[in-house]
Amino acid sequence: MIRLENIRKSFDGEEVLHGIDATFEAGKCNLVIGKSGSGKTVLVKCIVGLFKVSAGHIYFNNVDITRASKKEMRLLRQEIGMLFQGGALFDSKSVEENVRFPLDMFTNKSDKEKRMRVDEVLERVNLQGQNQKMPSEISGGMKKRVGIARAIVMNPKYLFCDEPNSGLDPQTSLVIDHLIYEITKEYSITTVVNTHDMNSVMEIGENIIFLHKGCVEWSGNHDNVLTSDNQLLEDFIFASSFLKRAKEALVQGK
Amino acid sequence: MSIFTSIGQYMILMSHIFSRPENGRMYYKEVMRQMNAIGVGSIPIVALISFFIGAVTAVQTAFQFVGSFIPPYYVGYVVRDTMLLELSSTITCLVLAGKVGSNLASELGTMRITEQIDALEIMGINTGSYLIGPKVIAAVVTIPLLVILSSALGILGGYMAVATSHTIKISEYLRGLHAFFDPYYVTIMLIKALVFGFLLTSISSFYGYYVEGGAYELGKSSTKAVVISSVAILLADYVLAFLLT
């Protein structure tokens, strides 16, 4: 479980997160949603320690990481997997080398054990047999799946996904969403997904916080997100004319 | 960013570079890979430039000396000492600042922009140590070797120029190569190569590592890396000339 207490973050004197309180539960897909510029990515980068918070506390299973030493932080990071928006695969390494990298760096496993583990996670993300391909030879969706494989290869306790569906077609997005959901359940990981994709919200949003201008404007789950009477949330969800018409049709019973 | 902020950031990055690596074996593999890229990959350009610099120095010096009261064998002596004391180390490192420096800055800058450095940080890896440390170590090991190669090829270039132009006798050139030789000059050359190698890799890596933005900023940063490391090499050359001679 991850708990945030009064998280504030400023850049050059300008505050972009204004006291965020939230809890991300273990074994659930926790979503951070909001418009571009609402502070989602900054919040996720603060949680994983890429940005230092200006104030507040972040607890990973009751351990406050804002007060953790560098060594404690390094150890904690080995329990964290992250899927970046563009995949962030190492260009000079093959799919197998990318996935194997954390194992090479942090474990004393034999070569055979490492290969078996890499094959296992690649099979889990439906990329068996793609070991020798280079990142430049695979599609956007495959890059995301390699990113997921690399993120879970060390059996992390926490998984962070920064806009996992950006740049993907709706069908591939759905595949990625289901993969994230299944992995969360399978390994009982605390998953935090930062997204503005409404399909993801409806598919995997078990615990959702909606950010607006650096504040938590609403929290709930995919069952009550559509029925919320929060105007800002409604404006965000029904921003597209397609969804607006769908809602109107639903209300009119067509 | 002010110059003082840049210097401060550079110092902090250098302190990270020399911290203990997470995995010695992976670090060693990366050092070997970089030695191949920086050292072996630069042999053709260094060889070409050094050969012609030696040849031109021999021709120019012979042109000045012939017909004067200076003995002709001084041509070999001048080529040898200018190669050892100045041209091999400085010109080689200035060329490498362009070739290797821009390459390092763009490689690290691309890694920064595409979040590959963030991905390494998330894994708990000290990116300064893992990404820049091996480059610096590879440079301070291979660049002195390249400079040794450069002076040998420069002297050979001088020999070929004398042999083909017949401005002085080859035996005079060879006599000059042996005249007044001070082995300390080789020490100076190696110290310079080591310092310049460190400067060009660390400065170029610094500009790549802290890139912010996109392709435009990456291009600017790459250019800045080459310019600043070249200026740093020239300044260090001046300081070392005072300190070592």
What does this structure look like?
The complex is a heterodimer of chains A (254) and B (245). With 254 residues, chain A is α/β, with parallel strands linked by helices. Chain A is built from 9 helices and 10 strands. Chain A folds into 2 domains: 166 residues, P-loop containing nucleotide triphosphate hydrolases (Rossmann fold), CATH 3.40.50.300; 64 residues, no CATH class. In chain A, a hairpin with a 2-residue loop joins β9 and β10. In chain A, α3 crosses α4, α5 runs parallel beside α6 and α6 runs parallel beside α7. The mean pLDDT of chain A is 87. Chain B is an all-alpha fold and 245 residues long. Chain B has one domain. Helices cover 84% and strands 0% of the residues of chain B. Chain B is built from 9 helices and no strands. The relative contact order of chain B is 0.18. The interface between A and B is medium-sized, with 26 and 15 residues.
* Broad shape of chain B: elongated
Strand content of chain B: under 5%
Oligomer: heterodimer
Order of helices and strands of chain A: EEEHEEHEHHHEHEHEEHH
Summarize the structure.
By secondary structure, chain A is α/β, with parallel strands linked by helices. Chain A contains nine helices and ten strands. In chain A, the strands form two sheets. In chain A, strands 6-7-8-3-9-10 form a six-stranded mixed β-sheet, with helices on both faces. Chain A has a four-stranded antiparallel β-sheet with strand order 2-1-4-5, with helices on one face.
